[in-house]
Design brief:
- By secondary structure, the chain is α+β, with helices and mostly antiparallel strands.
- Helices cover 39% and strands 25% of the residues.
- InterPro entries: YjbR, YjbR-like_sf, YjbR/MT2646/Rv2570-like.
- It holds the Pfam family YjbR.
- It comes from Niastella vici.
- This is MmcQ-like protein.
Length: 119
């Protein structure tokens, strides 16, 4: 996966918006106005942050070296994924999906229903 395929994948999900609230070098993907993925464009190693269930976050960090506590994020709920080729694109997409689904589930019912209506 590279930054273009990450971008395309995120934007293919229902009701996703791409924003640059931290300046031109950090892509932020939101659903229902809430962040589910952050990707710095100017880092040495391609990486992105995704939200994760706290217990699963620990499990993934223990199992995969490319999964680290969320860089500049709440480390209980966010993981930083270093895209180094050690896990498949399918796995990366699964972690993106999990983050997206966690955020959708946390939205107010009316907003959540609107998002689900776009699927």
């Amino acid at each position: 996966m590279d930054i273009e395929s990450l971008r395309d994948y995120c934007l293919s999900k229902p009701a996703v918006e791409e924003t640059l609230p931290f300046g031109p070098d950090t892509l932020v993907y939101k659903v229902g106005g809430k962040v589910f993925l952050i990707c710095p464009m100017e880092s040495e190693t391609f990486r992105f942050n995704v939200k994760c269930d706290p217990e699963r976050a620990i499990e993934l960090r223990e199992r995969y070296a490319c999964v680290q506590p969320g860089y500049h994020m709440n480390k209980k709920h966010w993981n930083t994924i270093y895209v180094d080729g050690s896990v498949s694109n399918t796995m990366l997409k699964e972690w993106i999906n999990d983050s997206y689904d966690l955020i959708v589930a946390s939205l107010p019912a009316k907003t959540r229903d609107q998002v689900k209506g776009q699927q």
